[in-house]
Structure formats: C-alpha cells, structure tokens
Amino acid sequence: MSISRQNISVVIVSFKSDQVIERCINSIDEEIEIIVIDNSNSEKFKKKIENKYKNVRCILSSENIGMGAGNNLGIKNVTKDYAFILNPDVILESDCINEILISCSEINSFAILAPISSEEKFPNYKLEQNYEFSSLKPFKVKSVDGYAMLFNLKRLKQLNDFDFFDENFFLYLENDDLCERLNKRGENIFIVPKAKINHLGGEGVNSKYKEEIEFSRNWHWMWSKFYFNKKHYGYLNAYKKVFLNLISAKLKFLYYLITFNSYKKKIYKMRLSGLVNSMIGKKSYYRPKLDD
Known about the structure:
Elements: E1 8-14, H1 18-26, E2 33-38, H2 43-52, E3 56-60, H3 66-76, E4 82-86, E5 90-92, H4 96-106, E6 112-117, E7 125-126, E8 139-140, E9 143-144, E10 148-152, H5 153-156, H6 174-184, E11 189-199, H7 210-233, H8 235-258, H9 262-279
Parallel strand pairs: 1-2, 1-4, 2-3, 6-11
Antiparallel strand pairs: 4-10, 5-11, 6-10, 7-9, 8-11
C-alpha cells in the first residue's frame, strides 16, 4: 500500500490546549499538513499557530463540539488519502512516521493503523483472544485509543452507509464505537509496534481549568459508557454494565455530602447526572464552564 508524507494530513482537535499543542506539532515532520480544529473558537490562538507554523491550518469550530465532531470536521477538510488523528497531548518519537510508512507498505489492507504508546503499563489497544502481540511486526487488534490513529480514507469512504465518529459522543468511547462498527464490517485495525508515541495523558487542556475539566470528564465518562453499551448490546445489557457504577456513585455522593467534601461530592454528582441523563435518553449536553 503506497503512502508518503505528502499523502497524509494530521488532524488535531484542541480546546484550551495552548500550553501543550506546540510540543505535538514540533514532533511532526514539517512537510506533513496539519489541520487543527479549535473548539475554544479563539481567533488569537488561530493567528498565533498559523503564523508560527507554515504547515498548520487552524479551523475554528464556533463552539465546543467535542472530540468526535471535531475530528469529523477535520476529516471533512482533508484532501489527502490518509488522516492521522492526534490529541494535542501526544508527542511522536523521532522515527514514528518512518515506521508507519514502512508498515503501510507491508500491509495489504487496513481501515485504521496506530502507533504504540511508549507506556507499556497503559497500552493504547485491545487485543482479540485470537490475535497475538508482536514487538516487531504490525499486529491486528480489536480497537485502538483515539488519541493516535491513522485513517485509510480511500478505503473508509468506499464503505456504504459509514460515518466516521458518532457525534452523539461528546467525550470518551467514540473511538471504541468506531472500531466496533469497523469490526462488524470485517475491516482490519493494526498496531505498529516500532512506531512509538508519548501520550502525556490528561494534559490536553490548560491546568488552570483542572477542576472544571475533571467534573466534565466524570459526567461524560458515565454518559458515554451507558450510551455505548446501549447502542451495541441493548438497554438491558447496558444497565447491567453500569449498575455497580450507579450504586457506587450514589453512596459516595452521600458520603462526601455528610463529610463536607465539596470537591468529591461534585465529582460523584457529575457521575450520577451523566449516567442518569444517558439512561433516560437525553443528549450529551454538559459542557465545562470555563472563564478566560
């Protein structure tokens, strides 16, 4: 499969990511086009990033549309055959792109191909029982984490009635949903073990917004967990999957209420709210409240 740097566009969705995104961009070869979708809708950020990097185009999303919708917007603006989806807190190791290009030439067909996280304790993939890990050659996986994934757009655009990311997910599990749908169609997803990345994890948003972002993450994690399982396995199975989460969140909310721990109380209030709203069929509406 023929692929080159000139045939790849990188898509990065940013949100208050000024303090970390330049490390990501600096790790990408200058000849590769980069499309940044800024969910902060900051003209100042757009001007700064486009003036500093000649290979970067920044598109303002007008509002915070989330990761899945942001990536979809980026993909719509890609004119190349491959889109490399990256989170702003990902740094490519020096030979990452070369190893991806080599691996593409060795694989007959793939829908998604991903580099491997340098943090072995936290792998960025899930293996099927009949798949085997290899430290040398690309190996098939069930799914990959959404913070680094190369899309074969030529192949994916040929699939009938296929959407990329389900925009009902605002945050979390949109990548699992995408991989699940590709698995059902018999498409191949690979990890390239020689192509390595460093994922800073949770540093994609400026640390001054830490508390509000943590509330948002807890809300959306529970909303997405129920929605994902309902979509793929039905309401009853989804309820079984989250039942212990529901009980735990209730008990911990009450405990932190009577012990006057306002931060922890709100964390579990967010979990309860996200889960209940998903269970009753409400959209993933919660947005972090950030003051500039």
